[in-house]
Design brief:
Length: about 575
């Protein structure tokens, strides 16, 4: 190769790495250097002990996303080594969520339990190399002899058992001759290592419990670190991407790889966990919210679970885009909720039909509009996209507007309806408030207005201008139902498990009025309710529609209020 060519290859390599995160750079480097034959395989390894959350979505996007870019396999591997906490329900929900996020494991579905036989043989290999021993200390003794960050651990009195004795005892553990906790198998590494993970970690324990996949075949189960490393290596994973808390486990990961005969030598690379403000991303803590009855289940729309976000109406594309924007780093961070919400908003803005819905209605009677008459107006489904078509809006004497769009004693910045003022009804006419009707409790129950027939949107001859246009629906043509509004589960920005829960995390509105065209909406249809936000049909009961609010629109009025304070 001439000088020019090698320079060219160097330049192209640099070009290849430019702008890439450190994981992609390392992968490019390893492939270019021919490590593991220049092959790439990643895996996403959930423990099926709960539903996946937004943090897992990041890991899924990284593992499946990178594999896709290289046209390489990504395994979906269930790390099912703890039968006490695992279930088929979780396995199924995880598969559904990964698919919904838009990823495909193809034939590469695996379970740590698929490898239990091989993992057991590899444990025997360690014993035969005098690198593992059966320890018969009680769990209390095991705990007390581990040492601390500043003091070394203490060697077990059983550490020097002969290979033959260890093999015999381990065989008997496997045959079910002992009770839970009577013995464990430990790797023989270094009780005085400054890294506690290397102080003779337990690699097998006795657990008389059926496993959701292997049934009653085993009464000893490999511990997480052992099973995880070996599963990676056995299935041919080349890059084991995990979160930072496993950084201290990497020496153990590598110790297993160095001391056992394995087909692949994967490289573990850590990145920081994704945390989102005002929420928690820990399956255990999320399970507590369910158990204590604070939320209705894993897919409650307030939950940061993938199934909760789906029910909330977040599109998969928005979650993927959010993960892309979060990126891969080594720094622990808490991402603002507003980044997630603005990503959702952006995606929905382009794809959702507009519609009018009144969440908290106030009745208007237009006194000079002919009683009993209905007029059909037209409205575009999307202001910027003609192709999305238009819909018909019936208009009549009785209409409903939002309570908030009327103020009896308006501030000077309030340009919507107030006594004597005029406002435009979108796609319709300019109306003027002539009279306020109240009930015996002094609550406003109805407004009497007049309309100007020359101000019809699009065809009116009047040149009258008003400062504000509000949404409305015709009362007699409207559909009813319910609307659920959601706020964050916690008011604390970085909640702990004992942080107080937001009492207003769900608000149910039971008197909404939707425009007539929504009678054709289906479960899962999403709309932008003009001036109100994005909503998804959660349920349909008879002719009633139950909507969940996905996300608000930007609230400019709130900003004005804030400025004034
Ligand atoms: P949890 O703390 O919620 O129980 P976990 O780490 O125990 O999470 P696993 O099922 O073991 O859950 O996770 C599967 C994969 O997802 C792991 O590789 C883990 O590193 C990754 N993961 C879990 N939580 C996050 C997060 N918040 N951000 C990024 N990746 C995550
Ligand atoms: Mg875990």
């Amino acid at each position: 190769m001439g000088k020019g060519a090698s320079r060219k290859s160097f330049m192209s390599k640099k070009e290849k790495y430019r702008g890439k995160d450190f994981i992609r750079q390392m992968i490019h480097h390893d492939i270019d250097s021919g490590i593991n034959d220049g092959r790439l395989a990643t895996r996403f390894p959930p423990e099926p002990n709960g539903y996946l959350h937004i943090g897992h979505a990041l890991s899924i996007c990284i593992n499946f996303g990178i594999a896709k870019e290289f046209d390489a396999p990504c395994y979906l591997r269930f790390d099912d080594t703890n039968p006490a906490k695992e279930s088929e329900e979780y396995v199924n929900s995880i598969m559904e969520d990964v698919k919904w996020l838009g990823f495909d494991w193809g034939n590469n579905l695996a379970h740590a339990s698929d490898y239990f036989g091989s993992i057991h043989e590899l444990a025997l290999e360690l014993i035969e190399k005098d690198l593992a021993y059966v320890d018969s200390q009680t769990s209390e003794e095991l705990k007390n002899t581990r040492g601390t960050l500043n003091t070394p651990g203490t060697k077990s009195p059983y550490r020097d058992r002969s290979i033959a004795e260890n093999l015999g005892l381990f065989e008997r553990m496997k045959n079910g001759e002992f009770e839970n906790g009577e013995h464990v198998l430990r790797a023989k590494i270094d009780m005085s290592s400054p890294n506690i993970n290397l102080r003779d970690p337990i690699i097998y324990r006795i657990l008389h419990m059926d496993h959701q996949k292997t049934g009653e075949e085993w009464c000893i189960y490999p511990m997480y670190d052992f099973a995880h490393t070996l599963s990676d290596a056995l299935e041919g994973t080349t890059h084991s991407l995990c979160t930072l808390e496993f950084e201290d486990h990497r020496p153990l990961y590598e110790w297993f790889l160095d001391n056992l005969s394995l087909p692949t030598k994967p490289r573990q690379i850590e990145f920081s966990r994704l945390n989102v403000e005002h929420t928690i991303t820990s399956k255990r803590k999320l399970a507590e919210l369910i158990d204590s009855g604070h939320v209705e289940g894993w897919d409650d729309p307030r939950m940061p679970t993938i199934s909760g976000l789906r029910k909330r109406g977040y599109p998969a594309s928005a979650i993927r885009e959010f993960c892309r924007r979060v990126g891969i780093t080594k720094k622990d961070k808490s991402i603002e909720m507003s980044l997630l919400e603005s990503t959702v908003r952006e995606q929905l803005d382009a794809s959702c039909n507009r519609a009018m819905a009144i969440l908290k209605p106030l009745k208007i009677t237009i006194k000079n509009y002919p009683e009993g008459e209905t007029e059909i107006l037209e409205a575009k489904n999307h202001p910027k996209n003609e192709e999305m078509g238009s819909r018909e809006l019936p208009f009549s004497q009785n209409i409903l507007i939002e309570k908030d769009d009327f103020m009896e004693n308006p501030d000077k910045d309030f340009f919507r309806l107030s006594p004597g003022s005029e406002v435009r009804l979108r796609y319709a006419y300019i109306i003027k408030c002539e009279e306020v009707i109240k009930n015996e409790n002094d609550e406003i129950v109805e407004l009497i207005c007049s309309y100007d027939p020359d101000t019809k949107s699009g065809s009116g001859t009047s040149t009258k201008k008003v400062k504000s246009a509000i949404h409305w629906v015709s009362e007699n043509h409207s559909i009813g139902g319910k609307v659920n509004l959601f706020e964050t589960l916690y008011t604390d920005q970085n909640p702990k498990s004992d942080s107080p829960l937001n009492p207003d995390s769900i608000i149910e509105l039971d008197q909404p009025a939707y425009e007539q065209s929504l009678s054709k909406a289906k479960i899962g249809s999403r709309f932008q309710f003009e001036r109100n936000g994005y909503f998804i049909v959660d349920q349909i009961e008879g002719d009633e529609l139950i909507f969940n609010r996905i996300v608000t629109l930007k609230d400019t009025w709130a900003k004005i209020q804030k400025k004034k304070k």
